[in-house]
Design goal:
mainly beta; three-stranded mixed β-sheet; 43% strand
Length: 544
């Protein structure tokens, strides 16, 4: 009976781990062994006595599976093996505090499904010669399997419920590939992305209205439900250094990172540095890469802005390539708390540190970073108790965008991205803030910037924030030439729109009301509406 039980456990290990980067775990007598076949499959042998000891402790270390930690030997197989065994046995993983793990260019991803404490361990990720540039080094993965809910053929904006029963709370992703939105304009122009939305439902199909459905879906070409892991997973510590790639400067993004693909995750105390950047290189999609999940918190973490390189864009003109240390895609309720970066947040040679698409309820709290950004839309965002550098806040989206108790050092407080229509359908609230443009040779001060001709179809109606509230704002315009006319609320979004003769093919819906209370300037000059008084002539401004 005893041997039969051991055999059944062996079979269970193989079944559990086979889908985990093609890992096979056996339990033969002898010693712990880790080896990789020519086909890349990782074979791990852990004798029964060692398994019992590990389970009694409740945790394993990378050195248990052969990691040298000498900063020279490639330890990725040992690291991946450690996590594979820990996942199969629900054990915590710990780094060896004095170790420096070297990770070369092998296309091996360590799958994290249990609490991981990198501690004071260091990791060197060498990107100078990689087999697969978009293979994550670590991936936080769910033990849940996604599935296709049956009978959902359409959705309505703000729909409170879908008529499906679920096994528990689920993250729903819906796509209509027959509708294109976010049809980008400018040097990086494109044909848009398929209409996409993400939201959370409970077991009865009730939608969490804190992150509502934001589009009408006349049809749905694909829908997926991923059960949400309700047990928190924690990742702590670790000092990671990326040796930057030396590839050609073009849009071949590198994703050698910590990818989070599981809900209910906290990353605490991680440090990421970058070295080896030269006069050329391919961009990065983010070292902390959060996607297809919900309820993720990154806190007390130090990141690094990437050097900006240029290439030729889709319109045949030179463009600076976006390159990131933070990426958020198809994710909701994602928070960055007390996060900073290693390099100067006002140094324009480094690209803004964060980029996101299809996000909801994104938060910066207590952060000092070079940029907050939402490319293809965010529904509800908050920046509070933070300092943002030279690239400031760039966003388009819906809902409420709140900036409070913060210092903004960019060209504007909020830039509504022109390449996606300078659209924000909802409300903008700015309160208890300082705006101090740190950009050199700036000749004017503008709080809200953007550009919209009304002649390009972005795939949706474009809006300015319907209501804007600005309370207790101090504008430090002391570095601006004394002959300027004072700060403007709005930039000149369309210099051609100077009278009624200008016709928008795709009308841009303007702001209805602005409430100003205790807005002061260092220069003593009053806040104006805009250099383009005609375009904003119907905006109602209330000054308290």
């Amino acid at each position: 009976m005893r041997f039969a039980l051991m055999f059944s456990c062996l079979i269970a290990f193989v079944i559990v781990c086979k889908g985990q980067n093609d890992v096979v775990i056996t339990s033969h007598k002898g010693k712990i062994e880790v080896r990789a076949n020519d086909d890349g499959r990782l074979h791990i042998n852990v004798p029964p006595k060692h398994t019992l000891n590990f389970k009694a402790k409740g945790w394993v270390q990378y050195s248990d599976f052969g990691a040298r930690g000498d900063g020279k030997t490639d330890d990725i197989d040992a690291i991946a093996a450690t996590h594979a065994f820990a996942n199969a046995n629900q054990l915590v993983v710990k780094g060896d505090d004095k170790a420096t793990y070297y990770i070369g260019g092998k296309a091996r991803t360590a799958i994290i499904k249990t609490d991981t404490h990198f501690g004071a361990a260091s990791f060197i990720i060498d990107d100078t010669n990689v087999e697969k540039r978009n293979a994550a080094v670590f991936m936080v993965s769910s033990g849940m399997q996604s599935f296709t809910p049956k009978g959902v053929t359409s959705l309505e904006k703000n729909q409170p419920k879908i008529d499906v029963t679920f096994p528990g709370p689920c993250l729903i992703t819906v796509v209509n590939s027959n509708v294109k939105q976010y049809i980008r304009f400018g040097p990086n122009q494109n044909n848009g992305s398929s209409q996409t939305d993400i939201f959370v439902v409970d077991k009865n199909g009730n939608v969490d209205m804190d992150a509502p459905i934001i589009w009408d879906f006349a049809e749905i070409t694909s829908i997926a439900a991923l059960p949400i892991d309700e047990t928190p997973l924690n990742i702590t510590g670790g000092v990671f250094t990326t040796i930057a790639n030396q590839a050609e400067s073009k849009y071949t993004y590198y994703s050698r990172n910590l990818a989070i693909r599981r809900s209910n995750v906290t990353v605490d105390g991680l440090v990421h540095r970058v070295t080896g950047e030269g006069d050329h290189g391919a961009p990065y999609s983010g070292f902390i890469d959060v996607g297809n999940c919900a309820y993720v918190t990154v806190k007390n973490t130090v990141l690094t802005g990437r050097k900006t390189y240029t290439t030729i864009g889709a319109a045949g003109k030179p463009v600076s390539m976006g390159t990131y240390d933070i990426s958020v895609n198809r994710a909701l309720n994602v928070s960055f708390i007390n996060c900073t970066q290693t390099n100067d947040i006002n140094d324009p040679t480094f690209w803004g540190i964060m980029g996101s698409n299809f996000g909801k309820n994104l938060l910066y709290d207590g952060c000092t970073l070079s940029r907050f950004d939402a490319h293809q839309g965010v529904a509800n965002a908050t920046v509070r108790n933070s300092t943002l550098g030279h690239m400031g806040i760039n966003a388009i989206g819906t809902g409420t965008f709140t900036v409070e108790n913060s210092t903004i050092l960019g060209r504007s407080i909020v830039n509504l991205r022109p390449d996606y229509g300078s659209t924000w359908q909802g409300e903008l609230i700015i309160q208890n803030c300082v705006f101090k443009p740190s950009v050199k040779n700036l000749s004017r001060v503008t709080l809200i910037t953007g550009r919209q001709t009304g002649l390009h179809d972005f795939g949706y109606i474009c809006y300015m924030p319907e209501h804007i509230t600005i309370e207790n704002l101090r504008i430090d315009d002391s570095n601006i030439p004394v002959d300027y006319n004072g700060p403007a609320l709005f930039a000149d979004f369309n210099p051609q729109m100077t009278d009624e003769s200008y016709q928008e093919e795709f009308p841009y819906v303007k702001t209805k009301e602005v409430i100003l209370e205790n807005v002061t300037t260092t220069s003593g000059k009053a806040l104006r509406i805009s250099d383009n008084t005609f375009m904003f002539k119907d905006v109602k401004v209330l000054r308290n």
